[in-house]
Amino acid sequence: MRKILVFVVFAALFVHQPLSAQKTITGFSEKTSAAQKQREQKFDALLSAERIGQTIKDLSSAPHHVGSPGGKVVADKILTKFKSYGWDAKIETYQVLFPSPKTRVLEMLSPTVYKALLKEPALKEDATSGQEDQQLPTYNAWSADGDVTGDLVFVNYGLPGDYEILASLGIDVKGKIVIAKYGRSWRGIKPKVAQEHGALGCIIYSDPKDDGYYQGEVYPKGAFKNEYGVQRGSIMDMVIYPGDPLTPGIGATENAKRLDRLEAPNLLKIPVLPISYHDAQPLLEALEGPVAPADWRGALPFTYHIGPGKTKVHLKVDFDWKLRPAYDVIATIKGSQYPDEWVIRGNHHDGWVNGANDPLSGMASELEEAKAIGELVKTGWKPKRTLVYCAWDAEEPGLIGSTEWLEDHIKELQQKAVVYINTDASARGFLSVEGSHALETLVTEISKEVEDPQTKVTVFERAKAENTVSASSAKAKKEAMDKKMFEVGAMGSGSDYSSFIQHAGIPSLNIGFGGEDAGGEYHSIYDSYDDYTRFKDPGFVYGIALSKTAGRAALRMADAEALPFDFRSLYKTVDGYVKDLMNQADQMRESTAVENEVIRSNSYALANDPKKNIKAPLPKEEVPYLDFSPLQNALKEFKKTTDDFAQLQDKFKKDSLDHAAMNKVLYMAEQRLLSESGLPRRDWYKHTLYAPGFYTGYGVKTIPGVREAIEQRNWKEAQEQIHIVADAILNLSAYLEHSFGAPPPMPQD
Amino acid sequence: MRKILVFVVFAALFVHQPLSAQKTITGFSEKTSAAQKQREQKFDALLSAERIGQTIKDLSSAPHHVGSPGGKVVADKILTKFKSYGWDAKIETYQVLFPSPKTRVLEMLSPTVYKALLKEPALKEDATSGQEDQQLPTYNAWSADGDVTGDLVFVNYGLPGDYEILASLGIDVKGKIVIAKYGRSWRGIKPKVAQEHGALGCIIYSDPKDDGYYQGEVYPKGAFKNEYGVQRGSIMDMVIYPGDPLTPGIGATENAKRLDRLEAPNLLKIPVLPISYHDAQPLLEALEGPVAPADWRGALPFTYHIGPGKTKVHLKVDFDWKLRPAYDVIATIKGSQYPDEWVIRGNHHDGWVNGANDPLSGMASELEEAKAIGELVKTGWKPKRTLVYCAWDAEEPGLIGSTEWLEDHIKELQQKAVVYINTDASARGFLSVEGSHALETLVTEISKEVEDPQTKVTVFERAKAENTVSASSAKAKKEAMDKKMFEVGAMGSGSDYSSFIQHAGIPSLNIGFGGEDAGGEYHSIYDSYDDYTRFKDPGFVYGIALSKTAGRAALRMADAEALPFDFRSLYKTVDGYVKDLMNQADQMRESTAVENEVIRSNSYALANDPKKNIKAPLPKEEVPYLDFSPLQNALKEFKKTTDDFAQLQDKFKKDSLDHAAMNKVLYMAEQRLLSESGLPRRDWYKHTLYAPGFYTGYGVKTIPGVREAIEQRNWKEAQEQIHIVADAILNLSAYLEHSFGAPPPMPQD
């Protein structure tokens, strides 16, 4: 009976209602819902597209990478803005390692001599492209210092599967320099896999097929990468841990205990350099050896070969390896009712160069929200919970500003953080949201209220239309068309939410628009205001849509009487993941068995072209049956827990007063999904459901402990991880069940 | 009882035996089988790779297209060879229309001026490439005369689906000139579809992505098409009828009644010209308008646009439209026992230019067989049935030599022709065979005896290995690995078998090797002896394998006591086609219903990028349920008939003497599958099971009447055609059943 009694207090508010007839916002009563909607109307009316444009223009007027004078200027401007909007604002400074290049040389020594330009030219059509004295040159941060000479080998995208093909051709990259295309994985995976295979160095280039004239007109005529454009970027091995490489797990405060740089486990040992397709063309064209397989070939006008041959290159890079200050701007409006419950909203402010799109499009929307909220506060309203609006520094080199702040404040945050809402580069197109699946109802309701600037339907309807049209089968189209919920994606990595969800278990959302804004400006000097206004979000109308969406998420989480976590969505999602894993294991078992039979039948040797000398693959270990029952039983239990909520919904319709205790249970629930030991070989990652893939980088692996063990054919570890994930789900289930009948337990550290 | 009695005479020989333990050849007794195998050993020993090489070198020493002096020389040389081998040989001459160009002009008038070269240069690495005075220039035979100027539009491969995309972009080619890529269909489909859409003219070019440096090193460094290479070829609308356009259905004898050329229904009305990618590049690069969709883009180094814009081109071509003599060389060795049963073997001898690979690789193998057979005859052996070895002229412009001969002799051939065995261009790689499925046992047994020159396993094993390795799923690999039969493909068009099987219902086979011989010489001046010996079949060892395979087929069909037709293979194949058709109709019904729902939901309009102004598709007529039961019932009946054979096999093991009557029933059986009315809108095509696709050209459509009606969404016609095909199958079934108990009926014309 007590169980039910406790539940009276919030069941009516908590549970998701049929959306078509929705009058009230989940988590609000009828009355407070009406007030909230009114406030959101006011909020919308306070937003100005023109001002978003001015903010982007102002903050992108000079290069502003971490540690640069321009970076300090941007942090100070943001601080000033927050204050002028009426927020309590300060800068928290961390001392973080950030290498800036001293030497960059790439030259081909034979069969002909070519010295790479390594430079993006200024363009008259792009006002800020000529600020050479303030620009970071083209490089990959966290490349090792190195001076190497060797034969060149083309390794496609540089992923593990590409090296399997190289092996079948009898090509070994040991002692050689590899050249890989950008794309298909986070860039840091390419040198990591090259290093694993014994390469001396790694060159990464943008092929015009993926990022250049093959895609569309090049800049400045069109949006795509011109022949000199180079993608800068971090190659830190972020899938081990992000943040300052010298201070894993702790804040990089001035006196923090630091690792020796050469011992940092997330830094590579080989030199790496990104180049343009102008610089790549003579190198690739000089290669001999086998013709590259069809899906390796790019859009340069010659036959792609793999090498090695007579193509010898010399790569020399070194860096200053300085500690530099990272300025996190933290602005707060204290909650009137629950000041110790924090709704955190963040976007980074550092760019690789001028960064108009990445990160300033998202940053400008966040600032616009902050201004509107400040105006609302001036009218007398105060949020129930504390709003914490953040502008992170040093995201580009490895999510450093946000990670150090999270690590520095983790105990407090695991007590107080209700949610972390992230944005980053955003532009014209379709809404996409990744994050904690228990927040799917919140996201769905918001997406059904915000209007798409181009089509004037809701952003929900537009995203649904896109999913429907682009679905690959009639069945998938039908399913997409019938979707009532906005599908929240799982979080990998690539922006500042990573430490919040994956290290600390704080419920998170990452919100953005895009899909109609393709281009080649990413991490180049051409990510400028001129480019942005032509190709990304002319009129800044999607900047407004982003403010409306992320702002609503913050405002509703701040003022909800019952926090709108719905674990039924989480159950459904995880149940899908587990079915997918079981299916994957079954398919692997079948395909391994057949493939081994094909190999033993000598079919590869017989089918191969004898002139090409391709090696037949070796048989692989057969796939055993894994015991998935711990996961299945845990999910059965978890389903029961989440169904209890739904049953209570029907029985209790009345409102009540104090949801505080239950809210605290809810927002700390996701921490139950952390495993103390973390993922194998990367214990910084503690979430059992989401992590960036060890060999994909940004790309998510769901239930990563199990999934990656299966992919790596480590059956013992897969079985162990099944138990660990099942325990985490049972832990969450028990925690929720327990809280029905007793005061919520305090989280343990 | 009589039924069984009649069957005694051939059941033991007829039926396919387990191949692993196979001692006797199907159709032969134990004793005659041993003799046959011995004779085949002798036959093999008489073949000479060196001589095949000499033949290719000799016959490719000068250009030899139809009507040329070189063509006459080649025909005479072949005649002389047959005679010298001891065959009765003669030339049958037809007077056929063949247009040769007088004017060829292609120029871009704006935005810049470019005059196309329209010329392949001589290369010092290619000895015959400089014979300019004897070469046909680069052109498409059967282009209309024309002098047109218009805006240029890029139409991808120029297929119906491409025009749907153009329509969605609001682009109409009416009054414009289109430029299409070679590939994805027979070339003649491209101008036909362009004409259907109102285009003034059609340019066809070879994109380096499909046929150039993207695929591998270009000629003469490698095998692929260099920037100046042009694919000549016929654009006759052969899917209406092949052969001389002026004499459909009758032989083009000197005094035959001829159509007015401008009334010939298989000739197009617009000018057409093929060009190199060197000539295409400035035209394509000048195009404006929408960026081409991703799968339209080729490998030239710029952004592909569709146009139209300021790109105006002028195309002028005219032709001499002369009747020219086509010389079919016909060589015979009269059968000792059944002189009026003809085993026909053919290959064409005309080339577009020097034609070392196409057609001389196959021609040389046929001549090598003829020589070896001549030697066998000198030892005293004579084939039981008459061997007719043919060398066709004028295949390249439209299968003309073979078609006119067939049409000229159709009554006699429908009485006497036991089988037609075709070859054409052939080279290094894997055996492939298309043809009458009742001959699958014959093909399988032969493929398990001929050795692959490179791997020394049987050509059956090697083809199976390739099918296994390249299968796309574990299930498909397993199936490929477990295959006991060599899978005979269905015949579309593209070589001289077409009239035999599709017009006259004569059982046919088309045999070739390939798959490791890719290159860009096809229909260019570089299809030369130099190219052939480097890239196609160095050492001419696959020439020998082809002689062994096609020669065995001819020898076994000539000497079998019971002709090895096995209609159970036909039943299985047709049953698969019908299941596939039913499945296709079901999928179309489902996808149309869903797609219409998506369209009505306005999803296209909402998902589209408003800046691109793409039109949403219109709803399509819903797919009704068709009544497939006539086909299902016919197949049920047909299965019973073919199973009767298998049952008899177990009961009667004894040999008998006179199979003559039953053999005649068997070899004329395929004619029962013809429909008198022919296919809709192209009544020359009479076979109900196989035809070239109306919009694919070479590519086969099985059960074409039904399949194409469904594809064209003509439900009424689909239902009518179901009845016609079912009647044909019942006709064959009744004919076979009837022949169990009565003398075989004579075929009716």
CATH topology of the largest domain in chain A: Aminopeptidase
Measure the end-to-end span of chain A. Answer: 32 Å
Give the mean pLDDT of chain A: 93
In terms of quaternary structure, what is this? homodimer
* Count of alpha and pi helical runs of chain A: 24
**CATH architecture descriptor text of the largest domain in chain A:** 3-Layer(aba) Sandwich
Strand content of chain A: 15-25%
- Residues in helices of chain A, as a percent range: 25-40%
- The order of strands across the largest sheet of chain A is 1-11-13-12-14-16-15
Shape of chain A: globular
Structural class of chain A: alpha/beta
Number of domains of chain A: 3
Highest-level CATH class of the largest domain in chain A: Alpha Beta
Write out the CATH superfamily name of the largest domain in chain A. Answer: Zn peptidases
Roughly how many Å is the radius of gyration of chain A? 26 Å
Q: Low-confidence stretches of chain A at least 5 residues in length (pLDDT < 50)?
A: 1-21, 649-654, 742-749
* Largest two-chain interface: A-B, 50 and 50 residues
Number of strands of chain A: 18
Can you characterise this structure?
Two copies of one chain form a homodimer. Chain A is an alpha/beta fold and 749 residues long. The first copy, chain A, has three domains: 17-97 and 323-393 and 401-565, Zn peptidases (Aminopeptidase, 3-Layer(aba) Sandwich); 100-320, 3-Layer(bba) Sandwich (Glucose Oxidase, domain 1), CATH 3.50.30; 568-741, Transferrin receptor-like, dimerisation domain (Transcription Elongation Factor S-II, Chain A, Up-down Bundle), CATH 1.20.930. Helix content of chain A is 39%, strand content 15%. Chain A contains 24 helices and 18 strands. In chain A, the strands form four sheets. Chain A has a seven-stranded mixed β-sheet, sandwiched between helices. In chain A, strands 3-2-10-5-6-7-9 form a seven-stranded mixed β-sheet. The longest helix of chain A is centred in the last third of the chain and has 34 residues, at 567-600. At the A-B interface, helix 14, helix 15, helix 19 and helix 20 of A face helix 13, helix 14, helix 18 and helix 19 of B.
